[in-house]
Every structure is written in C-alpha cells, then in structure tokens.
Amino acid sequence: MVLVIEGRPVEYGMTEWLPEDAAMLSTTIGAPDGQTSWEFAVILLGLITWGAEHRVTGLAVLGDNTAALAGALNMKGRGPLMLITRELAWRRVRFAWKFAVGHLPSEHNHHADALSRVCAPQGADKKQFPEQLLRAKRRSVPLLRDVWACE
Known about the structure:
Helix content: 25-40%
CATH topology: Nucleotidyltransferase, domain 5
CATH architecture: 2-Layer Sandwich
Strand order of the largest sheet: 1-2-5
Distance between the termini: 24 Å
Number of strands: 5
Largest sheet: 3 strands, mixed
Order of helices and strands: EEHHEHHEHE
Radius of gyration: 15 Å
C-alpha cells in the first residue's frame, strides 16, 4: 500500500503474508481466487495505518480491484470478506475514519502493484521494489492476524 499526497508517494507499507493469514481468509498465498480477499485486507491495513492521522482530511482509497473497493464502500461481503467488512465497519465508526473509495485503472496502479509482488512466492509474477518508492518512508504495518478487535 502506498500513501500518495499531492501526486507524490510519501509513505508505503508492506508485509509478507503468512499461512496463518491465508487460513484466516480461506485462501492460499499466490492463488488468484483469493486476490479480492487480499486486496480488501490491504484496504483495512491501510486504514489502520493511516486512518487516525488523516481523520480530519480523510483518505481516498484507490485500487484496481473493484470487488474489494465495493466491499469497503458498501460494507458487504461473504465468507472471509465478511470478517474484513465487520472489522472495517466497526473501526470506521469507533475511530471516526473518513474515507472515500475510487477505482484506479490497473495501468495507473503501478506503485502498489509492484510493491504487492516484491514478496511473491516462487513461480509467481515477482517484481523488483519500485524505484519511485526509494525516497518514500516505510511505515510499519500491523500483522493481519493481530488486527481483529471485532471477532
């Protein structure tokens, strides 16, 4: 995930998914059928990471996975997505997060897309760390398995 202010990436956060995270989301690391769950989880982690600091101004959550974005916007989901939806809804009210959701076409999502593939498993579409993020500050991201306050 990348925090962009005035068109410039200023911070980024990344984590390596572990088998415990995959089990929680009923998916497998590297499996394409779990992509929406992973991207929705990143929305939650991004809001946990930056939501409090941007409570007054709000955040625009942009991504290229329309199903994950719809979950954040509509607060709906099935199966493992409902776990994320409940947590996001609870935290949105509890911490007064303000955010809007918008689609960013894949061809414009290059920073986050490359960052998401730095730790890709063997045989997957692994990418190098994005050069544009070398001057951005790395932000600590909570582990997915540690964020559930609303189980």
